[in-house]
Structure formats: C-alpha cells, structure tokens
Design brief:
Helix 4 runs antiparallel to helix 5 and helix 4 packs across helix 6. The radius of gyration is 38 Å and the shape is elongated. By secondary structure, it is of the alpha+beta class.
Length: 544
C-alpha cells in the first residue's frame, strides 16, 4: 500500500512540476513545434534546417500525438532499456576484451608454432603489442565509465526549479557532455575490436588496432554523431528513438569498405638456422626460392624456409643455369661440377692448370648472357720477400667450351672472392690481405691479355677507407651498377660503372647488421645478414 502511495506521489510530481522545454540542438531556444513526420520536437530555429515540407504543429496542439508516442515508448520500455544498458555495455565490452585477448593469444601461438624455427622474438613482439593494446583499451573503457558516472552525478545535482539561475555556459557544457558521452561511448565500443591478421609470406601476423586512440591509426571510417536529427519514414510511430540502433546497422554494412588497399609485402625478412653465422653466396631462382652457400655447403631455400638437405659439400661458388642445373666451383678441385635436377653431380669443365707451378685453382664464377667466367688464382712468395699473385680468367659457353682466356701476374697478395662480368670489363672483389678481412674492388679491362686495371674502389667511410672496407658480397643490376654489401658499416650501397659511390640503399635503419651475400632478382634485392635474409624492392639507380 505504501508503494502505491509513493508511486502516485511521484506521478503527481511529474505532472505538476514540468521541466522547461529546452531544445537539445539550440540550448537557448524552447521546444514549441512538434514534427508529425519525424515525431520529434523542435524550436523555431530547427524548422529551416531539417524539417522543411514536414507536417508541423504547435506543441500544445499535439497533445494526443505526443502522448501516443510516449505510450508506445513506455509500453515497450525501450528508452529506459537504452539508458540502463549504456553502462552495462561498457562492462560487457571489458569482458569481451578479456575473451578477445585469450582468443587472439591462442591464434598467435598457433601461428607461431607453424613457423617451426626461430620465431620466439616475433612471438614476444606480437604478444607485447596485443597486451599493450588490451591494456590501453581497458584504460579507455574505464575512462568512459568514469565520464558516464560524472555526467550522471552532475545531472543529479541540478535543481529543475533553479535552472534559470544557473550559468548558461555550465548548462551548455553539461548538455554537450551528456550527448558526447552517449555518442562517443557507442562509437568507441563499435571501433574497439582488436583482431589478429596473419599475413602472406613469412610474417607471423599483426595486431590490428581498430580503436581511435591517441598514438594509433584507425582502420575504420568515421561515424556520424548519433545526436544529429535524421528523417524517417511515415510508417513508424517511434522510429526517432531508434537512431542508435539504425546507425549500428549502417556501421556493420560499411565495414566491408574499411580497408581496400593492399599493403606492400616488401621488405620481407626470414630467419635461417641458428648455426648459420654467415652466407657466402645467395642465388635466387624464384620469388621465394634461392640457393645459398654457408660453411661451404650448398643449401636451398624453398618458400622462404631453409631446407634441411645438403646438396653438395666443400662448395665455394655457384651459378644457376636456365635448365635448372647448378654449376659448383671448388677451390681445391680443378673441375667445375654440375648438379643435375635429380641431385646427381657430374663433371662440367676442367678450368684448373694443375701441372704447372704454382697450380691455378678456381676461386669464383659468374654467368651473364650465357657466358660463364671463372677466376683462377695462385700465389708465390712470402711475407719477407713479398708475394706475387698469378691470375687466370677463363670465358666459356654453357656447354663448357672455352672461348677466351687471360693470364697475368700482379705483385702482392690479392685473392679473388667474387667476379662479375660487365660490358666494360670484369669486376672483381678481392681479399686484399691474408692477415685481415679487408677487401678491394677492381674493374679489369676484359679485352686486354694483361687485364689492365681500369678503376678501383676501396671504401667510402672515414679518412682511410681502404683500412676499413670489409665486403662479403657484390652483384650487378641490369643497368650495370655495382651493388656492394659493407659488412663493417651495416649497409648496402651502389657504385657506378667507374666504381664511384652513388647511393646508400639500405643500412641499419632497415634492420641490417652484418650484410654479406647479395643478389638482384626481378627487381628485388636479396641480402643475407647473419642467419637472416632480407628481400627489398629495388629499382636500378639512375633508371627510376
């Protein structure tokens, strides 16, 4: 009985103490008009904006229509449900985030297990990103709950009878905060969906941050404010209360247009075995496959993953033929061997001069335009009386028939490490000193029987670059530029046809530490760095 009495008193209070009809869009105006099309209230300023050609009436004359709308609203209890569930939605979202974290953590770890080798660092990175994102989301959700509670407390402290005496700016700010609190909460929770996206190639995946938080980039389109007036059909009696629900449907439909541009997959990086410290040679044969030499063993990369099989032992250099065979050079053997697709090793050509003193042994090989070039070398002398390097360069076709050869001697100890056949001559990377790891690069005149030196490069860094130039690999692009890996300075740069420095391509900022073997293949530059391989997009310098 007491409850019934209290309810009647509350109903009487609602009827006898009405609040002022302030327009929610124009705070200084009062509601005086009722739009029968939108079933919404407005002030005089609203008429010329979104309600042109609508059926309007004075608020006092729309008593029955307004009560009908309120009757339907109270009957379904829809608006009360919306207000009461706003705080609950934030709490539910917190629970969902915990579930998301557990779910995506499992996905990350499943993807990590599939990588098989050397992905512990990547796993830790992804989990750290996920953990930071979840923590950031949880903090932001707590801030949303705090904002809701603050607005609710400030509204509760207002006295309706004293409303005309309140500072107008405070009222405007409070109304704006209330609308902003509702709209931002809905938008924030709709956007707050972390997801795990595995990528192609070697990558383990990425945590995609959809929240519009400071420091992160939103991947979703912007949303309209739910407080904006909208037009609805004439069929519904209470559609103007369903703005939030309708916009949520629109958001779901628009999600298919979120991101349409594909992110460039390069650069790519992947790891080899932990016991591989340096790659002496890398020869790509497709977008994802390559031959490598490490510890004088011929190995193969398939689908960006190093196979366990060893294809040949005691290998110093290789070239890949168009028929799928591989020519194998061994410095302690005068014969170049051919590795057939069925993995059988057969003799290809005899290039060593073994019955003279000193004997010439092959040290490096290259292939260009079906011309094979081998560089044979030997040395005589000693440290006290000096050394003499004896050199033998041989040109042959892909059948192993020698077409040209050159014999010449140079004072000093210079062992060839890599050779590249150019139109202007033969570019050779030398190990300049048997007591150190220093190198030099020379361009030799190919037409001369003496192979005279045309140009020389010794380094670009510091006051005495020749004392600091340590190079583990060179290659040539289709424009004839020489690409050099600088082992000591963590960089890869380009030299012109006269061996002059042109441009640094990649360095430590791109993740390089100790770049060694390099090779250009179909506008991509493969760089072996320790037990890691990088693949960069590359366009010929001067042609781009």
């Amino acid at each position: 009985m007491a409850d019934d009495t209290l309810e009647r008193e509350e109903n009487q209070e609602v009827g006898t103490s009405p609040k002022q009809l302030r327009c929610r869009f124009h705070e200084t105006e009062e509601y005086t008009i009722f739009c029968k099309d939108c079933k919404d209230f407005m002030c005089l300023k609203c008429i010329g904006q979104l309600h042109q050609k609508h059926e309007l009436s004075q608020v006092q004359d729309a008593d029955q229509a307004i009560r009908t709308v309120m009757y339907g609203l109270l009957l379904e209890n829809k608006y009360a449900e919306h207000l009461n569930s706003l705080s609950d939605k934030v709490s539910d979202k917190e629970k969902e985030l915990v579930q998301d974290e557990e779910s995506y953590t499992r996905e990350i770890r499943t993807s990590v297990n599939k990588m098989k080798q050397n992905i512990d660092i990547a796993e830790e990175r992804l989990l750290s990103v996920l953990r930071n994102a979840i923590e950031s989301y949880q903090i932001s959700l707590q801030e949303q709950k705090t904002n809701i509670n603050n607005v609710e407390r400030e509204i509760a402290n207002l006295d309706v009878d004293k409303l005309p005496g309140y500072n107008l700016n405070n009222i405007i700010n409070l109304l704006s905060a209330m609308k902003l609190c509702s709209s931002s909460s809905e938008k924030f929770m709709n956007r707050l969906n972390p997801c795990f996206q595995p990528t192609l190639e070697f990558s383990i995946g990425n945590i995609i941050l959809d929240g519009n938080l400071e420091g992160y980039v939103s991947a979703l389109p912007s949303y309209s404010d739910i407080s904006v007036q909208t037009e609805f059909s004439e069929d519904s009696d209470i559609e103007w209360f369903d703005a939030e629900d309708m916009q949520e449907d629109d958001l779901i439909e628009s999600s298919s247009d979120e991101v349409t541009d594909q992110i460039d997959e390069y650069p790519i990086s992947f790891q080899l075995k932990q016991d591989i410290k340096i790659v002496q040679k890398i020869v790509p044969i497709s977008k994802k496959d390559a031959w490598i030499i490490s510890n004088r063993k011929l190995l193969k990369i398939v689908e960006h993953s190093l196979q366990e099989d060893v294809y040949a032992e005691n290998v110093d250099d290789i070239v890949d033929l168009k028929d799928g065979c591989v020519l194998i050079l061994r410095s302690d053997d005068s014969f170049i061997m051919k590795l057939l697709p069925n993995r059988r090793l057969v003799r290809f050509a005899d290039v060593g001069i073994m019955y003279t003193y000193p004997s010439y042994n092959p040290y490096c090989i290259c292939l260009k335009d079906d011309i094979i070039v081998t560089y044979n070398w030997s040395t005589t002398g000693n440290k006290t009386h000096g050394y003499t390097s004896r050199n033998n360069i041989i040109w042959m076709n892909t059948d192993g028939i020698v077409t040209e050869r050159s014999l010449f001697s140079k004072s000093g100890w210079k062992r060839p490490c890599s050779v590249q056949n150019l139109e202007s001559g033969v570019c050779v990377l030398y190990c300049a000193d048997f007591e150190s790891n220093l190198h030099s690069i020379e361009l030799l005149e190919a037409k001369s029987d003496k192979c005279n030196k045309l140009y020389c490069f010794k380094g670009i860094f510091e006051l005495t670059p020749h004392r600091n130039f340590e190079c583990k690999g060179i290659c040539v692009d289709k424009a004839g530029n020489i690409i050099v890996s600088d082992y000591r300075h963590h960089s890869v740069y380009v030299l012109d046809k006269e061996l002059k420095y042109k441009k640094t391509l990649f360095d430590a900022r791109n993740g390089l530490d100790k770049p060694a073997a390099i090779c250009v293949f179909n506008n991509h530059l493969w760089v072996a760095d320790g037990n890691q391989v990088f693949i960069f997009n590359y366009e010929c310098v001067g042609n781009s």
